[in-house]
């Protein structure tokens, strides 16, 4: 008898989406971190605004390609993408109803983190960056900083992918400190939007020609001086949302994305012995004759 073949039901991502994610994140971080790795040639504000439409177009094309790759990796199942699309819409509604305030209270990083925890890093990045683009169109006019903001939201979702292979309860507990890290890291990256485009003369200002280590030290000092409280508030807010609704939502999302499914055997037709098929047919024939004999 031929041994059964095995398949995995609902695998949320594969090599296509992972490769695209690496390309998107690598290119995005290279752009955002330009003032750090080459402060001498980093673009100023005028150059950044002029290149923003091209960056936006590249990001939209990259997200579309990532969605197609996820669809292919999931076995061309539209239901897997439907879960992610629902999360993008839900996060857009969250931002529209509960818009980020000036005190750092933001609720928009929780769902991307949950998407990464439920379906992997590519899915988390798609939900984060996609909801940043859609919600910005819904609540206001896109600005030149939108590509950077979308990338930061996507990175928050990608962090959730670190917990994808953990059991739901363990992943939920681990997501609480991860939310704090995401809040602090997103603040540092968001600071790069303005800090690297406005050279100054203070000890925390951006200055052209600095080596990468000195530029990074100045950026961190600038963050401590200007936005650390807001960044920690963002992280604490995200952690509180996850603490309250994270576990049930994670279980439901994993069920919808199929990432908790287990391998099931696929028995080919030729693996069934011929005599077994004959016995089933004889049994069916005898049952039919017996039933006909009972009729008046």
Features:
elongated; mainly alpha; disordered N terminus; two-stranded antiparallel ribbon; 11 helices
Provide a descriptive summary of the structure in words.
The protein is an all-alpha fold and 296 residues long. It has one domain. 70% of the residues lie in helices and 2% in strands. It contains eleven helices and two strands, in the order βααααααααααβα. It has a two-stranded antiparallel sheet. It is elongated.
Set down the secondary structure blueprint.
Blueprint: E1 5-7, H1 15-32, H2 34-37, H3 45-73, H4 78-97, H5 110-119, H6 121-139, H7 146-160, H8 168-195, H9 212-226, H10 228-257, E2 264-266, H11 274-293
Antiparallel strand pairs: 1-2
For the record, the count of structural domains works out to 1
Helix/sheet category: mainly alpha
Query: Into which percent range does the helicity of residues fall?
Result: over 70%
Q: What strand order characterises the main sheet? A: 1-2
Biggest sheet descriptor: 2 strands, antiparallel
Average pLDDT level = 82
What proportion strand? under 5%
List the quaternary state of the chains. single chain
Query: What is the 3D shape?
Result: elongated
Total strands: the figure is 2
Distance between the termini: 45 Å
Element-level helix/strand string: EHHHHHHHHHHEH
Number of helices: 11
Nearest-angstrom radius of gyration?
26 Å
- Unreliable spans: 1-11, 260-270
